[in-house]
Specification:
The structure holds 2 protein chains of 2 kinds.
Chain A: H1 3-19, H2 24-30, E1 32-36, E2 39-43, H3 51-60, E3 80-82, E4 99-100, E5 105-111, E6 116-122, E7 124-126, E8 135-137, E9 165-168, E10 171-175
Antiparallel strand pairs in A: 1-2, 3-8, 4-7, 5-6, 6-10, 7-9
Chain B: H1 2-17, E1 25-27, E2 50-52, E3 60-65, E4 74-80, E5 86-92, E6 94-100, E7 106-116, E8 119-130, E9 136-141, E10 156-158, E11 164-170, E12 174-180, E13 185-191, E14 196-202, E15 205-209, E16 215-220, E17 226-231, E18 248-250, E19 255-259, E20 264-269, E21 275-276, E22 280-281, E23 290-292, E24 298-301, E25 306-313, E26 323-330, E27 335-346, E28 348-351, E29 358-362, E30 368-372, E31 378-382, E32 391-393
Antiparallel strand pairs in B: 1-2, 3-4, 3-32, 4-5, 6-7, 7-8, 8-9, 10-11, 11-12, 12-13, 14-15, 15-16, 16-17, 18-19, 19-20, 20-21, 20-22, 23-25, 24-25, 25-26, 26-27, 28-29, 29-30, 30-31
The chains are: A alpha+beta, B mainly beta.
Chain lengths: 176, 397
């Protein structure tokens, strides 16, 4: 069993536990899979319509779409850590010599240009010590670590060759 | 004369400890190793020994610093809580968790290292530190690792008898690694069934919090295997109003207070299967703008039945915003006793467990503040506590 298989199983476990209290239709609507880099990642329970999105709109009121090195860049609504955009990478490209993690927790941010909500995979870049530049803490829709799929404190380097956190990416999944 | 010099050093350091009843001890300087020529030893008029601390006071404050810009090199600072003078420091590994012993003789760090700093072979260990010498005195390798996460206090704990340290792991299966800290031996993993964190409930039992807002309660045997596993009923709404991980937990009295994002307090008896009492709300009429938040945002002083919570003005999803005030409650009457304004807003607080307790508040800008937790008056503050100090611990918590 690869670590990604195990990771999927872990997340299924989490999803099942949530499902014990949710309607089957609701859970099915919120679970799925998305193909990223050849690995099937769990698309975990994401509240697309409720309070989290309402607050993503709150962040979007002061967000901008031009400068990803600033904490108020629209995709950073729930990003926690050092921005890869300040560390030699971009929102979706890891700095040289670091490893792109295939796993992530998933947030929902509103792009103020079109008013649409987008799912963002908060994947870390890994394999070197913390970049240390441009620390930002977004907490929109962020949950405690017993909801790991919605927690931004965990080192999201599962499945990467190294579990050493370097910086935080904000990779677009698609429209919410 | 060597012995006389030692006596002078001990006397001076006794004075700098600020307590006439505590006599400082010293360890002689490290002897010169055989491979060094004797002439390499620098002769000095004074001796150059190493201080040994007295038994820790319950008023000392232990500050865990993950050092975010340099995560591979964490620290645990130790200060005298009354005047915030430095008692000492230990070095730790990646995103450590600290656990304090019941008898004050030890504290442990569950920590992670790579053989080449940030590269190479990963090793996860529980390291025992002597609380007087601050020397690492033993370690137990965690063969299945530990969860790497911004340090959260309840990711590691100690059973009621002080024998088993439990370290949370997501490798990625959810489990608790069991370490016998008497024998300094790794025993195995307890499957937490997808639930996280560790709240001790007895000598051979522990509870974890599940994604749907219930506890799972595990009992285990002396070989580190699960004996029973019981799921409780959901006691909070984990979709709409989750409880913070940093519940205020007092291990000796087995009491805990879980606090939700919206300010509901869930009193929990951690004695066997957790028993949740009727919830109550921190905010009353006129407090609508306020909510709890920060990191280690709550503390409980058992002898006086008082709960301390960091509060700020803010909207939904400001759960990590540092507190502008600490609100103090009597948990029996569920009435607020006091509001303590914080000169510097603080994400992390704790309270010492002695009968004239101290309240500590730690900012995200490395300022530690101390208040008299009886009169609520500020006593001292200290800046530049490293770079990113994060969690607070005391003996007796």
């Amino acid at each position: 069993m690869t670590i990604l298989d195990a990771f999927d199983r872990m997340m299924e476990h989490t999803a099942r536990r949530i499902a014990q209290r949710s309607s089957r239709r609701g859970v099915l609507a919120r679970l799925g899979g998305v193909l990223v880099g050849g690995a099937v990642l769990p698309l975990l329970p994401v509240d697309k319509t409720g309070a989290k999105l309402a607050h993503a709109n709150e962040f979007a009121k002061t967000a901008q779409t031009k400068d990803p090195t600033k904490c108020n860049y629209w995709r950073h609504c729930a990003s926690d850590g050092y921005l890869c955009s300040c560390c030699g990478g971009t929102v979706n490209v890891c700095p040289p010599g670091s490893y792109a993690s295939p796993t992530a927790w998933i947030g929902t941010c509103v792009n103020p240009d079109d008013g649409q909500a987008y799912l963002i995979a908060y994947q870390d870049c890994c394999g070197k010590d913390s970049c240390g530049l441009c620390f930002c803490l977004g907490t929109e829709g962020e949950m405690p670590s017993y909801r790991p799929e919605l927690n931004n404190d965990i080192v999201w380097c599962f499945g990467a060759p190294s579990m050493v956190y370097h910086c935080s990416s904000q990779v677009l999944i698609g429209k919410a | 004369m060597r012995l006389r010099a030692l006596g002078v050093v001990a006397g001076l350091c006794g004075a700098c400890l600020g307590s006439g009843s505590v006599s400082a001890q010293v360890q002689p300087a490290t002897p010169i190793p055989p491979q060094m020529p004797p002439a390499a030893a620098q002769p000095t008029q004074e001796d150059h020994p190493t201080l040994v601390l007295p038994e820790p006071s319950p008023r000392w404050i232990y500050v865990l610093e993950p050092v975010f810009p340099y995560l591979v090199a964490s620290k645990m600072w130790i200060f005298d809580g009354d005047d915030l003078s430095v008692k000492g420091m230990v070095s730790g590994g990646y995103t450590p968790n600290a656990v304090m012993s019941h008898d004050k003789s030890r504290f442990w760090l569950a920590e992670t290292y790579w053989s080449r700093g940030s590269r190479g072979v990963r090793t996860d260990v529980v390291t025992a530190f002597d609380s007087k010498t601050l020397d690492p005195v033993g370690e137990v390798v965690l063969p299945n690792g530990r969860l790497l996460v911004v340090p959260k206090k309840h990711n590691a704990t100690l059973t009621s008898d002080g024998r088993y340290l439990l370290s949370f792991n997501m490798d990625p299966a959810f489990s608790l690694s069991v370490v016998d800290v008497t024998a300094m031996k790794y025993l195995g993993e307890l499957d937490t069934q997808g639930c996280s964190l560790a709240f001790p409930t007895g000598d051979r039992s522990v509870a974890s919090l599940c994604p749907d807002g219930r506890f799972v309660h595990l009992t285990f045997d002396e070989t580190g295997r699960v004996v029973t596993s019981e799921l409780g009923q959901p006691f909070f709404d984990s979709e709409n109003d989750p409880v913070f991980e940093h519940a205020a937990v007092h291990r000796p009295s087995k009491q805990a207070f879980f606090i939700s994002y919206e300010g509901w307090v869930y009193p929990v008896r951690l004695d066997g299967m957790p028993k949740v009492a009727e919830r109550w709300k921190l905010q009353g009429p006129g407090d609508e703008e306020w909510r709890p938040g920060g990191w280690q945002l709550a503390a409980f002083h058992a002898a006086s039945n008082r709960l301390f919570v960091a509060m700020h003005k803010g909207g939904k999803w400001t759960h990590k915003q540092a507190g502008d005030e600490v609100w103090v409650y009597d948990v029996t009457s569920r009435q607020r006793l006091h509001r303590i304004p914080l000169p510097h807003h603080s994400a992390t607080i704790t309270v010492s467990q002695d009968d004239k307790p101290l309240l500590f508040a730690l900012t995200e800008t490395a300022i530690l503040q101390v208040f008299d937790a009886v009169t609520y008056q500020p006593k001292a503050e200290r800046s530049n506590i490293g770079i990113t100090p994060w969690l607070l611990y005391t003996f007796g918590e």
